């Protein structure tokens, strides 16, 4: 990998369409990344957020046994890991569809009609907020400000960031996902 | 190149290369004058000289608090033998703000150069860049830039041949507004819930891992190389005595030309809204402006003829904050807008302090019932009472931030509240 350095071992999107809920924590290239992440902090505990991201990248979500395994790896208790994982919205404590669609409905996007964009995503995927669509492909959720307020509505789908989304371009946007 | 909307009245220093993809790679950045400041500062200037220059420029923290950057650096101990850390706050999450994201995605090396100079000044051996996990399109850009900086010897064991070691790590956040608060960020970096800490001790005494630490916003650090190359007086040609230089305003909401605009800090707010941003959409009237992100008091359309300086906006009844300007036209329901912001704070409260944990959720419930026409006459005094109990009484200012839009909107748009409560209607024009 050309742009590889331990400094950026944690800088990967933690939400991917392909995932394996039974994959080991951690094997192969993920083991290497895990070791390199540990090397960037003076304490093991400080690696908790990056390692939870890594575990989610591998398995798709953070099951209780996944968190227990992360606790073992970092010499923490399972309760310590659960307390942290449950604090942050990007850690999925239950399974999500292959594509996690996060629609910003905070103030700026709300003023510009984000509610209708959210409705359109829900109707196009046939889901309720937070649920997994029948085909397992989608989970649609509301999210807090994505920091693209001038380009409302902002939408995040796994590792893709979309700006200026309108209800009209929702179907095309879903169709172009692999 | 016209970044979405550029305007001749802007003073584009930090944003000069927005929209210019050639500025992103290290070679392109160096061609545009990049790393000149680092080459000047590290071998030629002492740490004290760097700090003195930044202090003389009057640069103030651009993340929200407006604390002088040079003074913050000066607070770091000397010769204490402990490891020092520089934490870059790239956790931009104040609703209405989207400036750091643009700095990072167009000019990542601008931030890195500022951070390297900052690390030198405060004797930091490690820079942690705490970036929002949601910035999935920006993280690879920053990642590439960090690797390039290591390859070119701007980072690593022998920075610019000085023998100085500066490491840099990208630390990806996981979705928590409160991690953007200085001490919440330190807790988060240590692998904990992003719970803010009591001050003192201040981070300069006991910060990350208990060691002396400085936390700087992306925009503040991005301004540093320009100040070092051109001098403090050059930076002071813009703005006012108390608010020197330029500031990025992220303008959003009901505007014809939303986007980032960099203006001198004495620029007129009304001109920013009407001239640069083009004013409200066709056929609409401007109703309200929140000039500095959702945490600052709302201004009416009649109150915006003022400078955007720190002191100018305080005099007008609001604050610069993060520079996230949210404009609302006559189609906006102020009760709904405030309810949406307060719900956000209720969602993001870390829960440590009772006033904030209970107050934000309670106020959000009251606002929702008012919006839905179920409000009571006693709700307005109740909201003011709750707000009174939320402000200035907690570990961090999230609670104050939630109270600001409530109190200011009741002061300035009370008729809107009464329309909902008494007549089950709304003063917004559909």
- Give a count of the beta strands of chain B, DSSP E runs of length 2 or more: 9
Mean pLDDT of chain A comes to: 95
Describe the sheet with the most strands of chain A: 4 strands, mixed
CATH superfamily of the largest domain in chain A: NADH-quinone oxidoreductase subunit E
Overall structural class of chain B, as computed from helix and strand content, comes to alpha/beta
Helical segment tally of chain A? 7
Summed up, the helix count of chain B is: 17
Give a topology summary:
The complex is a heterodimer of chains A (178) and B (430).
Chain A: H1 28-38, H2 48-59, H3 64-73, H4 78-85, E1 99-104, H5 107-111, H6 114-125, E2 138-143, E3 155-157, E4 160-162, H7 170-175
Helix pairs in contact in A: 1-2, 3-4
Chain B: H1 26-31, H2 36-44, H3 47-57, H4 69-74, E1 84-90, H5 100-106, H6 108-121, E2 124-131, H7 139-151, E3 167-172, H8 182-189, E4 213-217, H9 218-230, H10 232-236, E5 246-253, E6 259-264, H11 269-276, E7 286-290, E8 299-300, H12 310-315, E9 324-329, H13 334-348, H14 354-371, H15 379-390, H16 398-412, H17 414-423
Give an overview in words:
The complex is a heterodimer of chains A (178) and B (430). Chain A has seven helices and four strands. Chain A is of the alpha+beta class. Chain A has two domains: 80 residues, Arc Repressor Mutant, subunit A (Orthogonal Bundle); 77 residues, Glutaredoxin (3-Layer(aba) Sandwich), CATH 3.40.30.10. In chain A, strands 2-1-3-4 form a four-stranded mixed beta sheet, covered by helices on one side. In chain A, a hairpin with a 2-residue loop joins strand 3 and strand 4. Chain A is elongated and about 50 Å long. Chain A starts with 27 loop residues before the first helix and ends with a helix. Chain B is built from 17 helices and nine strands. A five-stranded mixed beta sheet of chain B has the order 6-5-9-7-8, sandwiched between helices. In chain B, helix 14 runs antiparallel to helix 15, helix 14 packs parallel to helix 16 and helix 15 runs antiparallel to helix 16. The mean pLDDT of chain B is 96. Classes of the chains: A alpha+beta (178), B alpha/beta (430).
